[in-house]
């Protein structure tokens, strides 16, 4: 409704952004001079004012994606580091077993229990990551702004 009124408005409209101000997201849409270029003008401090700025959550979502958050969780959280270490050890152990064809093990039974353990570790890791993800998203907004 405001945008429609501004589009038909025939008097001059001046938008001024003082120094160190920001015009974010939805507010930008309402006062964008492109709505009525013949009558709307925008003025802002060229050094310290910013317009058309995304909210912190939007910027973080673009610059610091979920994959990056998961990588950060894996790097910083002790539980995730331990689970990843166990998974890597299990993978190395499985590779060593497959290389030793001389020894006669019941590798089929052993592989099943290893695969079950691997799946349990993956499930625990994903559960921990999902538990921590909201906190890391919230903190990332603070550090980007």
Automatic annotation (TrEMBL):
GO terms for molecular function: acetyl-CoA carboxylase activity. One of its GO terms (biological process) is fatty acid biosynthetic process. This is Uncharacterized protein. It comes from the Eukaryota. PANTHER family: ACETYL-COA CARBOXYLASE (PTHR45728:SF3), ACETYL-COA CARBOXYLASE, ISOFORM A (PTHR45728). InterPro entries: ACCA, AcCoA_carboxyl_beta, ClpP/crotonase-like_dom_sf, COA_CT_C.
């Amino acid at each position: 409704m405001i945008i429609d009124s501004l589009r038909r408005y025939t008097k001059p409209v001046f938008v001024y952004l003082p120094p160190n101000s920001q015009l974010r997201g939805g507010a930008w849409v309402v006062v964008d001079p492109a709505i009525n270029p013949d009558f709307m003008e925008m003025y802002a401090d060229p050094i310290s004012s910013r317009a058309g700025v995304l909210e912190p959550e939007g910027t973080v979502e673009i610059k610091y994606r979920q994959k990056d958050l998961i990588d950060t969780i894996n790097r910083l959280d002790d539980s995730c580091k331990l689970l990843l270490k166990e998974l890597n050890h299990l993978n190395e152990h499985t590779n060593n077993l497959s290389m030793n064809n001389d020894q006669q093990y019941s590798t089929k039974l052993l592989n099943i229990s290893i695969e079950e353990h691997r799946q349990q570790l993956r499930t625990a890791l994903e559960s921990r990551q999902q538990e921590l993800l909201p906190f890391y998203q919230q903190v990332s907004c603070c550090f980007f702004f």
